[in-house]
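Translate sequence into structure tokens.
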Amino acid sequence: MIKQVIAVYPGRFQPMGKHHKDTYEWMVNTFGYDNSWILSSDTVKLPKSPFTFENKLAIAQSYGIPAEKFINTKVPYAHGTWTNLKGILLERGLTLEDVIVYYVVGAKDQKEDPRFTPGFTKKGKPTYFQFEPPNAPMEQLANGKTHGYLAVAPHVEYILPNGVESSGTELRNFLPTASPDEFAEATGVTDPQIQSLIK
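Result follows.
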């Protein structure tokens, strides 16, 4: 029997930007603080993934995101690797079979670079990721082991001081040579230590 709804916001966050923080806040406002987590890995692979999990956690905390809400997991998109989050759920007496799981994704990412592909397998069975059926009562939704439902967060556009829209790629390109003021304008991060870490 389903006991609870939870939401996860999986991603690389290389690095986290203001648009990521806004998506996290949308998730918390939508699903509740106690039911919401960001998931990211410790994978480092240059040039696109330069930050360790601890680096990403420090950056997330500079945005005011609590450490308890930023969870290390081997593959953020695959619930089989969610050892740490499963531990948190177990402390509440829950497993994935007891919860409905919503995967939060930004509207722009879902449109331009979808990591989730709702639909059907070649054998005609529904894939793991699905959009929530319209007006479906909670008791008709599948548990988190069977399906993950996509929750598409509204797109918020931030323009960097160089005139391009903020994204992980554009932040990696812009921030290494940004002045402290440009850095703060681009990210909202004013802490010199975090600016230095990201640079």
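Note: The CA atoms of residues 61 and 110 lie 26 Å apart.
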